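Progress note, sequence design subtask.
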C-alpha cells in the first residue's frame, strides 16, 4: 500500500475540513487523548523526592508507554485495511487528525487580520494562542515576528514531520511521531520538574525532527522569491537557534521574506537573549505576515506534489 498516497489523502481531508469543533466537543482529539495519558504518567511516575536517575528512568518508561499506546493500535488498524483505493482512503481518514494543515493557517491568519487592521490588543491575544512567550508587551513587529516563528517551526512539527514519518512507516509512523512531539511539548522542558523526567522525550523529539526540519527549511527556501539567499541564510543561521531543528525552517522563512526573526524574547519568568536570524534584515510587519502565509501555502502545495511523485514511483515498482 502506498503510504505516500495515504498521507496525501490525509492532507486533502484536513485542508477541506480541518478538525471540526462539533467533533472536538464530542470526542476530543488524538492529541488531547495523548495529553491525558502523559499527565497521568507524570503524576504516577514523576516523584519530586526521587533521585535524578530514577526520574530519568521514569521518563524513558513514559516515552515507551506513550509511543506504544499511539503506534500499536494504528499498526493493528493498518494491518486490517483492504488493499487498493479503499484502504488508502480509510488510512487517510485515520491519519487526518494528526495533520494540522488547515489549523496552522487559521491560527496565523487570526493574528494577521487584527494586526493589519491596527488592532494591537486583539493581535497580541491571537498570537498568545500559538506561542509561549509573554505577548502583553509586544509591539506590532514583535507580534508579526512571533507569529512567523510559530508558522515556520510548527509547519515542521505539525505538518511536514508527521507526513514524513507517515510516508515512511504508515499509520504507526505518524502516530508514533505525534506521541513524541506531544511528549516534548508537555514534559520536554528544562524546569525543575521536567529536567530529568522529560529528558528522554526531548532528546528523542530532536532526533525524529532532524530530517523533517531541514526538509521544511528547504521547502521554504525553494518556493520563495529568493531561493539562493534562503538556502545560504538557512545554512549560515540555523545553528544560531537554541533548538537543533527549529532554526532551519525559521532561517529559511526569514530569508525568503526578507525579515529578521528570533532575537530577545520575554517569557513569564525570564527574558531569553536569543541571537537574531537573518540579522541584517528589518523587522517584519503585518504585510510580511500575509506574505508568510502565502509562502506557507506554496510550500504545502510543493509538499503535496512531492507525495504525489512518491506515490507514482511506488505504483511503477
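Output:
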Amino acid at each position: 500500500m502506498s503510504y505516500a498516497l495515504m498521507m496525501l489523502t490525509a492532507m486533502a481531508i484536513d485542508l477541506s475540513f480541518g478538525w471540526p469543533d462539533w467533533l472536538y466537543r464530542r470526542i476530543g482529539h488524538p492529541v488531547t487523548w495523548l495529553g491525558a495519558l502523559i499527565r497521568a504518567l507524570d503524576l504516577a511516575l514523576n516523584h519530586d523526592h526521587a533521585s535524578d536517575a530514577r526520574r530519568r528512568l521514569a521518563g524513558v518508561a513514559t516515552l515507551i508507554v506513550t509511543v506504544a499506546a499511539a503506534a500499536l493500535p494504528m499498526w493493528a488498524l493498518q494491518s486490517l485495511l483492504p488493499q487498493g483505493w479503499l484502504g488508502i482512503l480509510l488510512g487517510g481518514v485515520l491519519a487526518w487528525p494528526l495533520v494540522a494543515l488547515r489549523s496552522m493557517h487559521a491560527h496565523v491568519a487570526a493574528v494577521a487580520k487584527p494586526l493589519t487592521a491596527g488592532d494591537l490588543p486583539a493581535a497580541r491575544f491571537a498570537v498568545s494562542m500559538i506561542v509561549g512567550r509573554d505577548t502583553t508587551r509586544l509591539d506590532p513587529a514583535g507580534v508579526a515576528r512571533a507569529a512567523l516563528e510559530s508558522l515556520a517551526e510548527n509547519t515542521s512539527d505539525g505538518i511536514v514531520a508527521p507526513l514524513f514519518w507517515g510516508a515512511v512507516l504508515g499509520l504507526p509512523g505518524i502516530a508514533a511521531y505525534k506521541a513524541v512531539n506531544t511528549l516534548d511539548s508537555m514534559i520536554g522542558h528544562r524546569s525543575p520538574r521536567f529536567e530529568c523526567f522529560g529528558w528522554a522525550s526531548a532528546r528523542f523529539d530532536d532526533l525524529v525532527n532532524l530530517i523533517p526540519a531541514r526538509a521544511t527549511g528547504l521547502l521554504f527556501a525553494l518556493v520563495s522569491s529568493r531561493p539562493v539567499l534562503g538556502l545560504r541564510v538557512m545554512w549560515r543561521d540555523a545553528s544560531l537557534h537554541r533548538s537543533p531543528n527549529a532554526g532551519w525552517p525559521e532561517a529559511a522563512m526569514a530569508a525568503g521574506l526578507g525579515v529578521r526573526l528570533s532575537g530577545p524574547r520575554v517569557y513569564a519568568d525570564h527574558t531569553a537573549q536569543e541571537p537574531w536570524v537573518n540579522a541584517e534584515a528589518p523587522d517584519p510587519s503585518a504585510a510580511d505576515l500575509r506574505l508568510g502565509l502565502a509562502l506557507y501555502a506554496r510550500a504545502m502545495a510543493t509538499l503535496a506534489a512531492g507525495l504525489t511523485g512518491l506515490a507514482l514511483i511506488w505504483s511503477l515498482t
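The chain has one domain: 3-316. Work on this subtask will continue into the next period as scheduled.
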